[in-house]
Write a structure and sequence with these properties.
This protein is an alpha+beta fold and 354 residues long. The chain is built from 10 helices and 11 strands. The strands form 4 sheets. Strands 6, 7, 8 and 9 form a 4-stranded antiparallel sheet that branches. The radius of gyration is 54 Å and the shape is elongated. The N and C termini lie far apart (178 Å).
Length: 354
């Protein structure tokens, strides 16, 4: 019973601050007319530097004393309220104005839903978190690598003539429509990779091995680019394919040496064919020139047969006799026809030795 009475007195002192207690109205302060409450709490000191008040109120009091007691006003709102208001205003200002670069587009999503696309310049939107702006660079050329030149990471594709070729290539692409790029496809880069693999397999399956590893690469790259663009436009991906570059197109390693030997033989054969065609063109051109010259001579021969015949005889004899020594036999002896140096030395008598 004594314990119950004691706990009751303590609760009464806590909520009623010992006012109206049977021990007196002094609240345990010792300054009243009644006797001191032995079970009540000691009197609380409010506002004192060493009292047991709220530490935050004590911090505010010291701040007011430091600023001369003018800010914040006594009895007004605490300083954290004004600080929070300033921070809120700054957030509203900084999130309401968007600076979009010349090569950028700003995609605005309002409460998670697409709301528009911002053009380059200073634009204004609703503050965060109502509007969210994602800046997309539409001029940046991105690359997606398919396959590798490393033999451990092969990308085998079946050709149209039932051969296998290892193809490594790179896809270059840019973002054409930022809103479609962000909201239409969940994983754009993965989609590009899968579309590139499908397009390359579809194109290589229609060409031979010689075209795949030889001069047909440029045509394959063009056809793969067109196929990828058509598929991505059908998906509404907002992506523009800039081009496809084949880095490697070789047979498997097990037969690569044999294919290289065959390729070298084909190149030698093609070189021999080109040389033969060049020689044939030279001979043909020479024969055509001789035929044209003969036609001209024949036309002159028909006009004056005797004169032309004699001229042809003289020209022929000139060509023949220019390569041999010439003499004219007259009676009673042999005399040189022309004073050629070789003939003069031959007939000149030797001078006697002195």
């Amino acid at each position: 019973m004594i314990k119950i009475v004691g706990w009751g007195a303590r609760l009464s002192a806590l909520f009623n601050e010992n006012k109206g207690s049977p021990w007196g109205s002094g609240g345990g302060s010792g300054g009243g007319d009644g006797p001191r409450n032995p079970w009540g709490q000691p009197p609380r000191r409010r506002g004192g530097p060493s009292g047991g008040g709220n530490p935050f109120d004590e911090l505010l009091r010291r701040g007011r004393d430091r600023f001369g007691g003018s800010f914040p006003p006594t009895g007004g709102r605490p300083i954290w309220f004004y600080g929070a208001g300033i921070i809120l205003v700054l957030i509203l200002l900084f999130t309401s104005f968007q600076l979009i670069g010349p090569q950028q587009r700003g995609v605005v999503s309002r409460l998670g839903k697409y709301a528009g696309t911002l053009q380059p310049g200073l634009q204004m939107t609703f503050p965060f978190p109502i509007d969210r702006v994602r800046k997309i660079d539409v001029s940046d050329i991105r690359e997606t690598q398919i396959g590798s030149t490393d033999p451990s990471n092969s990308n085998f594709i079946l050709t149209g003539d039932q051969n296998i070729v290892d193809v490594a290539y790179t896809v270059r692409w840019t973002i054409r429509d930022p809103e479609l790029y962000l909201f239409q496809i969940a994983e754009p880069e993965k989609t590009i990779q899968e579309v590139a693999q499908f397009a390359m397999r579809a194109v290589v399956a229609r060409v031979s091995l010689d075209d795949a590893i030889g001069s047909g690469r440029s045509d394959i790259e063009q056809r793969v680019t067109e196929t990828m663009q058509r598929l991505l436009d059908g998906y509404g991906a907002g992506i523009l394919i800039q081009g496809v570059s084949i880095k490697q197109s070789d047979p498997p390693d097990a037969v690569n040496d044999a294919f290289k030997a065959v390729s070298a033989a084909q190149q030698d054969a093609q070189s021999d064919i080109n040389n033969a065609r060049s020689y044939a063109n030279q001979i043909t051109a020479k024969a055509q020139g001789e035929a044209t010259a003969f036609d001209k001579v024949y036309a002159q021969y028909k006009l004056a047969p005797e004169v032309t015949r004699r001229r042809m005889y003289f020209e022929t004899m000139e060509k023949v006799l220019s390569r041999v020594d010439k003499t004219v036999i007259e009676a009673p002896g042999v005399t040189p026809y022309l004073p050629l140096p070789e003939v003069r030395n031959r007939v000149r008598p030797q001078e006697p030795a002195q």
